[in-house]
Amino acid sequence: MQNGPNGRESSPVTRPRLLVVEDDPEMREFLTDTLTGEGFLTDAAGDGAEALIRLRAQPFAAVLLDKNMPGLSGLDLLPSLRTMCPNTPIILTTAFGDAETEREAATKGAYGYLPKPFSTQSLLAAIRRALEPHDFVAPSPSTPGGSA
């Protein structure tokens, strides 16, 4: 056993690699820093076109996808992502959503829906739920007194 990025023991199992697709640079950095700090491997894309390039280059355990982006919106991108990586869970995030947006996201293949603003705990719970049915081992939740 080795110590993981949070000082916790981790097995030699590959850590899940997540793709964060977010056009807002500050939010993108916050998400990647938070997820990396929790033991995930992360990659980021600033728009839909960049996300498609990254997804063609390597597989991801899950995708965190912003709805409102210039060019291809997250909802526009969902069908292409479903075709490219049909078994990869995609969690759609948005600050501008409602029940209809959530239904549309589900219809187009989103695994989950996370309205902004969301807490770090909600983000991590959504990602861990998305990874459960897959062969990846999600990092354990932070221990008491640790960051979450």
The CATH H-level superfamily is Response regulator
Spatial gap, N to C terminus? 23 Å
Q: From the 3D coordinates, which CATH architecture would you assign?
A: 3-Layer(aba) Sandwich
User: How much of the sequence is in beta strands?
Assistant: 15-25%
Query: What is the CATH class name?
Result: Alpha Beta
Tally of separate domains: 1
Examine the coordinates and then state which fold CATH places here, giving the name of the CATH topology: Rossmann fold
Written as H for each helix and E for each strand, in order along the chain, the element string is: EEEHEHEHEHEH
Q: Give me the oligomer status.
A: single chain
Q: Which structural class do you get from the secondary structure elements?
A: alpha/beta
The main sheet orders its strands as: 4-3-5-6-7
Our count of helices gives: 5
Please summarize the sheet with the most strands: 5 strands, parallel
Total DSSP E strands: 7
- What is the mean pLDDT? 85
Shape: globular
User: What does the radius of gyration come to?
Assistant: 15 Å
Structure description:
By secondary structure, this protein is α/β, with parallel strands linked by helices. It has a single domain (14-131), classed as Response regulator (Rossmann fold), CATH 3.40.50. The chain is 37% helix and 19% strand. It has helices spanning 25-37, 48-57, 74-84, 99-107, 120-131, and strands at residues 2-3, 9-10, 17-21, 41-45, 62-66, 90-94, 112-115. It has a 5-stranded parallel sheet, with helices on both faces. It has a two-stranded antiparallel ribbon with strand order 1-2. Mean pLDDT is 85; it is low at 1-11 and 142-148.
